[in-house]
Specification:
The complex is a heterodimer.
Chain A (H helix, E strand, L loop, with lengths): L3 E3 L3 E4 L5 E7 L5 E8 L3 E10 L2 E4 L7 E6 L2 E6 L8 E8 L10 E2 L3 E5 L1
Parallel strand pairs in A: 2-11
Antiparallel strand pairs in A: 1-3, 3-8, 4-5, 4-9, 5-6, 7-8, 9-10, 9-11
Chain B lengths: L2 E3 L4 E5 L4 E3 L2 E3 L5 E7 L5 E7 L5 E3 L5 E5 L4 E6 L8 E8 L10 E2 L3 E6 L1
Parallel strand pairs in B: 2-12
Antiparallel strand pairs in B: 1-4, 3-9, 5-6, 5-10, 7-8, 8-9, 10-11, 10-12
Classes of the chains: A mainly beta, B mainly beta.
């Protein structure tokens, strides 16, 4: 089975802190994704990566950056956390190819609270 | 731009009753359609997907969905709901159009509550 793990289930940070969310997948998938999930808004794509060191902006990239130095690991970075970034963050991965038609495998999520 | 609408935010059914969750999409070309389920405290799991061919798609856990191009809909159904089906359900649309790597667009989600 594909396994996608996220470094923390719950995280509490203060406004202005730099925050790192880590995601690791063990199935050699080329594509990796970061979403945020908010009630009533569903999942919104922040960034995705289709190869090591490659990235594409999603729908809501403002205030976020990403890093993919190794194929299995995809990091989401909040350079200066703000309260409106309090949310559930989901990481996903999928096989190489168009992201629009491959099944995505999701991690359990990180619930981030910014005070 | 592609979009997905799930008109029902919250649905409550009795155990053993039938279920239909609605999904309407907007996409300029042939869509690829997905239903995912998220149990409390869990990530999303794929229930089923439609790419082409037979418009009635069977998935895991006894779910099925029907693609209706004329109505731009992809509704999820189950003939008899079990208490363990209580979860949040997401419809998503993707495809080969748009940016070179495409993307999935998710609906707002429908929360299903099951009464004993």
């Amino acid at each position: 089975d594909v396994k996608v793990t996220q470094s923390s289930r719950y995280l509490v940070k203060r406004t202005g802190e730099k925050v790192f969310l880590e995601c690791v997948q063990d199935m050699d998938h080329e594509n990796m994704f970061w979403y945020r999930q908010d009630p009533g808004l569903g999942l919104r794509l922040i960034y995705f990566s289709y190869d090591v060191k490659m990235k594409e902006k999603g729908d809501i990239p403002e205030g976020y950056s990403v890093s993919r130095e190794k194929k299995e690991r995809f990091s989401l970075i909040l350079e200066s956390a703000s309260t409106n970034q309090t949310s559930m963050y989901l990481c996903a991965s999928s096989l190489y190819g168009l992201a629009g038609y491959n099944e995505q495998f999701f991690g359990p999520g990180t619930r981030l609270t910014v005070l | 731009a592609q979009s997905v609408t799930q008109p029902d935010i919250h649905i409550t059914v009795s155990e053993g009753a039938s279920l239909e969750l609605r999904c309407n999409y907007s996409y300029g070309a042939t869509p690829y359609l997905f239903w995912y389920v998220q149990s409390p405290g869990q990530g999303l799991q794929l229930l089923l997907k439609y790419f082409s061919g037979d418009t009635l798609v069977q998935g895991i856990k006894g779910f099925e969905a029907e693609f209706k191009r004329s109505q731009s809909s992809f509704n999820l159904r189950k003939p008899s709901v079990h208490w363990s089906d209580a979860a949040e359900y997401f419809c998503a649309v993707g495809g080969a159009g748009g940016t070179s790597y495409g993307k999935l667009t998710f609906g707002q989600g429908t929360i299903l509550t099951v009464h004993p």
